[in-house]
Design goal:
The chain has a single domain, classed as Rossmann fold (3-Layer(aba) Sandwich). About 40% of the residues lie in helices and about 15% in strands. It contains 9 helices and 6 strands; from the N terminus they run αβαβαβαβαααβαβα. A 6-stranded parallel sheet has the order 2-1-3-4-5-6, sandwiched between helices. Helix 3 packs across helix 4. The longest helix is centred in the middle third of the chain and has 17 residues. About 45% of the residues are buried.
């Protein structure tokens, strides 16, 4: 639990870490990188990550979501509409980075846009738990533990309030298919997780696709973790060479 209150200290360490200055990080190619917030979050807390992406040579984009809560199909459509506006309708390749629930949205958007998404990075994204919920129609299977159960129930309540017509996990909507369908062969996928994460532990994340990398630290602070930044920089740079 203590790890989940360490985000301010993690951010302070990041600001003084050489990686935040772009030292020994591959330069970007100007590609648009959409950064998607986690549950009950919005774009504001991801500003350090977008600032860093801009510093190393990418064109970071926010989602313009008021809050990541409610029906994920609706949120996916809102983000896709914003991608269209951000790219002026062009079909240039983009990259996606999603934190927690935002990683599930990133995975679905990659399933929708196919070869337009060059790579996806998820940070503590419980994709395995999400897919299991869809298969079993039981959203609490991976939520053992008081904090996780509380978060899952709060998410379900928000969905009922914001989108009373949503029938997740038994809705069989397009969003669920986008998460389940294989990625395009040209899309590189990276899942970053922490064994210290009490909100999205490894058993809720494991996915049989792409690469996985483990770091230390809590769930919330993944977006301020210097080790995560190094991994992302190397991954985006290497993917850009393929």
């Amino acid at each position: 639990m203590i790890q989940e209150f360490s985000a301010p200290a993690e951010l302070a360490r990041l600001l003084f870490d050489p990686v935040f200055q772009g030292d020994n990080v591959p330069r970007g190619d100007g590609k648009i990188v959409m950064v998607i917030p986690g549950l009950f979050g919005n774009d504001l807390y991801l500003e350090p990550l977008r600032y860093w992406l801009r510093r190393i040579g990418y064109s970071p984009a926010s989602t313009s979501l008021w809050v990541n809560a409610g029906c994920m199909h609706r949120l996916e459509r809102e983000i896709l509409a914003h991608i269209t506006r951000r790219t002026n309708g062009r079909k240039d390749p983009i990259a996606l980075i999603g934190h927690s629930r935002g990683g599930i949205l990133a995975r679905a958007i990659a399933g929708e846009l196919r070869e337009r998404v060059s790579h996806v990075v998820t940070l503590g994204a419980p994709i395995a738990a999400f897919r299991q919920a869809v298969q079993t129609h039981e959203i609490y299977r991976f939520s053992t533990g008081e904090l996780r159960t509380m978060i899952v129930r709060a998410s379900a309540l928000a969905r009922r309030v914001l989108d009373p017509g949503c029938r997740f996990p038994s809705c069989e909507c397009e969003f669920l298919r986008n998460v389940a369908d294989p990625l395009h062969s040209s899309t590189a996928f990276l899942s970053i997780f922490s064994n210290d994460d009490v909100i999205a532990p490894p058993d809720s994340i494991t996915a049989a696709e792409g690469e996985s990398r483990e770091v230390k630290g809590g769930h919330t602070s993944l977006v301020y973790n210097a080790s995560v930044y190094r991994i992302i920089g190397d991954f985006l740079g290497a993917a850009g060479e393929n």
